[in-house]
Structures are given as structure tokens and as C-alpha cells.
Amino acid sequence: MKNMKEVRLRLAPSPTGFLHIGNLRTALFGYLLAKSMRGQFILRIEDTDQKREVVGAVDSLIEIMNWIGLKFDEGPHIGGSYSPYIQSKRLDIYKKYTNELLNKDGAYPCFCSADDLTKMRKEQTDRHEAPRYNRKCRHLSQAEVEEKKANGLPFVIRQKLPLDGEIVVHDELRGDIKFKLTDLEDHVLIKSDGVPTYHFANIVDDHLMKISHVTRGDEWLPSFPKNILLYQSFGWEVPKFIHLPLILNKTGGKLSKRQGDVFVEQYKDKGYLPEALINFCVLLGWHPKHDKEILSLTEMEQEFALDGMGVSSAVFDIDKLDYYNGVYIRAKSDEELLALLKPLWNTCAEKSLTEQQNDEYLLKIIPTIKERLKTLNDINSLTGFYFGEKIEFDNELILWKALTAEQTKNNLEEISIELEKISEKDWHKEYLEKTMVGWLKTSEKKVGDYLWPLRVALTGLKASPGPFEVAGVLGRELTLKRLNQAVLKIKTLKSNL
Ligand code: GLU
């Protein structure tokens, strides 16, 4: 269709640090809306508040978005037809549009000093009025303005809002929202150093970059009517607005740094997979049609739609994130997991092993702990016992139920004798299990009395993969060695333990 409007959405972060989970959700929803309508997704850096800027934040943002897998079609790192994509490099553009707005009577210069404003606010509060700019400079004549400028008085530019009546603005999720104009303040669009505020630069750029849909957090709802009035003053078409509901913690409060991790980088460092994070985030405010919980990015791109989105706040539930992470970890092949885990594995096998032997060994371990990995970083605590000669265990731990130390030692010795009968060639989990369980059954022994001490002798842990899985990975020699060590240790224990 010829005149169909292009779909263009943008992520417009301020480079103030790491990527907040809330911003990831905003980014994801913007990306998915764009892709579900075959549109473009743009990165624009909103750095007009230089005081809040953190050095390196833009690079780290691009890096983490790459890791997450959301690709931009335009942005400061890849260019595009609407460059530059960093607001601090667009100051001339803003100057031009400031003059245009002044000429259209949509704004006015204000010469009130910081002291004037403080005094004004105090008087208003004393009178129990809401503190806001009293519009003093709105009434200056052209001659007065020129004179003040000629005298070198610093000034800001304020938006000239209608004085009374109502404005109805439209949000795609909430429908029409009514605001009383008497509640709005002529806020600052251009600061005294000539740099625009968010409210000006954001609207000018969305217009110039042909943004068709704006997704942003609902903390921007109070400024929404002012944004729309600015579009009207310029005579520009208004994009569709989608204000995303807040993400709350489990107790109903705001997601805050004090209660836990709130940045995507922290979750990456903790061993969460990007697939799990976006799957988790997409369900914070969107319900897929088929109630399907596990969705790949491609499925999301195909299924995402406005009508599945709601306005009630979403709850950040870390248990769910852990669940998704587990699902995606288990969906990986052992080789894929090896590549992800190797850099995190402290004990990357023994020095005598070649790289290839090392990988072979690690690949044997992975299937035994895959089910237990909640995050990639669990790898060290889950696999320490696979490395080194000796295993430390608590003396009490190795004793199963009412078994004495003496009985435990005897049982381990019996197991040793049986295991020694198994050759190197047959030494793998399935054969070990079949043979040893068969032996326990035919000799009418209680499974727990033998397999518990065997597992503790091999791992030193209360919970671990089963004894035959572990023995299969450790190999014949090391398994027998650990059993022998355990027997020797128990011999030194008092029999009344
Ligand atoms: N720079 C704003 C922020 O970081 C962008 C909000 C918007 O998307 O309009 O919150």
C-alpha cells in the first residue's frame, strides 16, 4: 500500500548507568511492536541532562542490548538516515525549532532567577497553593524581552500552555485521558545554557525521526498533556502513545536497588541467560493469546500485539525468572552449555589434561548437573567434587540413618570389592547401576545402607547427582581411591558415632 505510514519505534535512554529491568521491558515491548508490524527499531541517546550522565554508559548499553539480542535498525553505533542519534549532537536542530516555536507563540522566554523561583514557591506553599511557576514573564512585551536580553540577563524558554479548559489525550492502552489545564505548569523547554530539557528534545526528535509509536513508562503520564500540546503548537502529527505500567516488587513497592538486583548487567553476571530474561520480561504486562509461557524471540515477534497488553502493574517475581532460566539452560545442548560454562568454571580440570581431554571431562560432567543448574554461576558449587583427588565429608553425613560407623565402613568395603570386579571398559553409569543394584537386590541388602555412604564418599555432599552418575564421570581409578580414603577415615572414627 502506497500511503501506509511506516512503523518506527525508538528506545530513548538517558545514559545514566546500567540498564534497569524496567527499561529492558520498555525496550523489548518497543522492539516487538516494531517487529510485529514489520517496522524499524531505533536507538536514540537522550543525554541533555549532562549532570546525570555516566561515562561509558552508552557503550555498555549497546553491549548489553547486543547480548540480549535486540537489534537496532538505526542508532549512534550504526548510523541511519536521521543522524545524529545522540541529542547532545543535535543542539543546532533544537535551536531552529525553539525559534519556530517562539514564532508560533507556543513558548516564551522567562528571566526569573533561581532566587525569584524559590521565593515564589515559598509564598505559594505559605498560601497552601501548589508550588508552580506563576507565569510572570509570560506577559512581558516584546520590547521588555529585548531590553532584558540586551542587558545580558540569563533566561529559559517555557512552554506557553492554554490557561484553562481541558485537554483529552489518547493512550493506546488506557483510552482517552482528561487533564485540567489549570493543573499544568508552563514548564521549562530550554535551559538558560541553551540546552533543551527532555520535554522539548524528545518531541522534536520523535517528530523528525518519524516515530510512529512511543512506548514509555507510565511515570511520564503527568507530562503527557504537555507533550501533546507541544505537538499541537508545532502543528505536527502526534504518534501513538503506549504508557507501560510500572513493574513492582512482590510486596507491591517500586523495584529498587535496595531490595535486590534491578539491572540487566547484574543478572548477566549472575549467570542468567538472555533468552530467559526476555521471556521473563515479555510477560510483565503482556499475555500471549495461547497462554504459552515459553516463547522464543522469533515467536514473540510474530505474536506480540497491543491487545494482549494491560494497564495493571506487573510483578517482578525472581522465582519465575529462575524457572525460565532453568528451562532455557536445559534446552541447550551439552556443547552449547560447555561454551557458556567454561569461562565461569574455576576448576577447569587438572593441569595434566590437554584442552581436548579437559573438554571431554567437562562434557561428561554437564549432563549430571544440568537439571540442577539454576544459573550458570551455580556451576562451581555444583561440581567441585569432580575435581581433585580427595573428598572431605562430615563424619555424621556419611552415616545413613541408624547405621554405625563400623557398619558404614564394612558396607563401603563390600562395595569396593564389587566395584573392583567391573572393568575399565564397562565403567559407565548404566552398567554400574545395573550391576550394583542387581547385586544389592540378590544379596537382599538395603539400598540406602550402601548407596548413601557411597555417594557421600564420592561427593562429600548432602545433595548431588546419584552415585553411579558420579562414579561414571570420575572413572574407575578415582572412584576406588575415594572409597578407600573414606574407609580409612571412618576407621579412625569412634564406633559410637
Ligand atoms: N530519556 C527518557 C528516559 O530515559 C525517555 C523516555 C521516553 O521514552 O520518552 O526515561
- Oligomerization status of the protein chains: single chain
Question: Hey, roughly how much beta strand do the residues contain?
Answer: 5-15%
CATH domain class name of the largest domain: Alpha Beta
Strands of the widest sheet, in order across it, are 3-4-7
Termini separation comes to 84 Å
Shape: elongated
Share in helix: 40-55%
Task: Indicate how many domains the architecture comprises.
Answer: 4
* Name given to the CATH homologous superfamily of the largest domain: HUPs
Question: Do you know the CATH architecture of the largest domain?
Answer: 3-Layer(aba) Sandwich
What about the largest sheet? 3 strands, antiparallel
Could you tell me the number of beta strands? 11
Bound molecules: glutamic acid
Number of helices: 19
| Cα gyration radius (Å) | 33 Å
CATH topology of the largest domain: Rossmann fold
Structural class: mainly alpha
Q: What does it look like?
A:
The mean pLDDT is about 95. α15 (about 405-420) packs across α17 (about 445-460). This protein is mainly alpha-helical and about 500 residues long. The chain has helices at about 20-35, 55-70, 90-105, 115-125, 140-150, 200-210, 225-235, 265-270, 275-280, 295-305, 320-330, 335-340, 355-370, 380-385, 405-420, 430-440, 445-460, 465-475, 475-490; strands at about 10, 40-45, 105-110, 155-160, 165-170, 175-180, 190, 215, 240-245, 245-250, 315. The strands form five sheets. Strands 3-4-7 form a three-stranded antiparallel β-sheet. Strands 1-2 form a two-stranded parallel ribbon. The protein has four domains: about 10-85 and about 200-250, 3-Layer(aba) Sandwich (Rossmann fold), CATH 3.40.50; about 95-190, Glutamyl-tRNA Synthetase, domain 3 (Alpha-Beta Complex); about 335-385; about 405-490, Arc Repressor Mutant, subunit A, CATH 1.10.10. It has 19 helices and eleven strands. The chain binds glutamic acid. The site of glutamic acid has 7 residues, from α6. Glutamic acid binds next to α6. It comes from Candidatus Falkowbacteria bacterium CG10_big_fil_rev_8_21_14_0_10_37_14.
